[in-house]
Design brief:
Number of strands: 9
Number of domains: 1
Oligomer: single chain
Number of helices: 7
Radius of gyration: 15 Å
Mean pLDDT: 96
Low-confidence stretches: none
Distance between the termini: 34 Å
Largest sheet: 9 strands, mixed
Helix content: 25-40%
Structural class: alpha/beta
CATH class: Alpha Beta
Shape: globular
Length: about 200
């Protein structure tokens, strides 16, 4: 299977640095994302999706280390989830740090973090500034998530600044399981691809 070319990587980086929004494959469904430090780009995601401002974005990366500065120390139960299920189809919601902007989390004191298990997503994160994307699914609000490159193109063509090919590394099609870990307690917000078993 293919890798993303150097020229294409440079194009992706430039789009993000210029406040653009990109669409990409993950291990679950297709994502729409931008650099978390760019408020203009985050607002663009909400406009593209027609997303309610009270619904937060999450942060995704290729390595947990890149996400740790965005959150407060993760409770022990959360650390166990990370060891068992990252990378994979699990989003962990935990207390955010000062580094995570309020405009990413809709003013909430928590943020979702995830490490998708997809080679193309990993390659994108390796090259972008900070290695972290503020992200949501690549579809209009209240519409089905994009599960293929063709669906992502149909949803985001003319809206996102670029729709990156999956190079054969397909999305599985089921959203991530979303779990809250606050005060060392575990709460399932959305049952998705992973059944939690600690």
């Amino acid at each position: 299977m293919s890798q993303i070319s150097i020229e294409y990587k440079n194009k992706i980086v430039k789009i993000l640095e210029d406040g653009g929004v990109i669409t990409y494959v993950t291990d679950t469904v297709w994502g729409l994302g931008c650099l978390p430090c760019n408020e203009k780009a985050v607002k663009k995601i909400y406009e593209i999706k027609k997303r309610e401002v009270q619904k937060p974005l999450i942060l995704m990366s290729n390595e947990i280390y890149n996400l740790l500065e965005y959150v407060k120390p993760i409770p022990e139960i959360g650390q166990r989830l990370i060891k068992k299920y990252f990378p994979g189809a699990l989003t962990i919601v935990t207390d955010k740090s000062e580094k995570t902007p309020d405009y990413v989390t809709s003013g909430m004191s928590t943020v979702g973090i995830r490490i998708p298990n997809n080679e193309i997503f990993r390659q994108i994160c390796e090259i972008i500034p900070g290695h972290v994307l503020a992200t949501t699914s690549a579809n209009l609000s209240h519409q089905p998530s994009a599960k293929t490159y063709e669906q992502a193109l149909a949803n985001m063509s003319g809206l996102a600044d670029i729709v990156i090919n999956d190079y054969g590394y397909k999305a599985q099609g089921t959203e991530s399981t979303v779990v809250g870990v606050m005060n060392n307690e575990l709460r399932i917000f959305r049952q998705g691809a992973i059944e939690i078993d600690l």
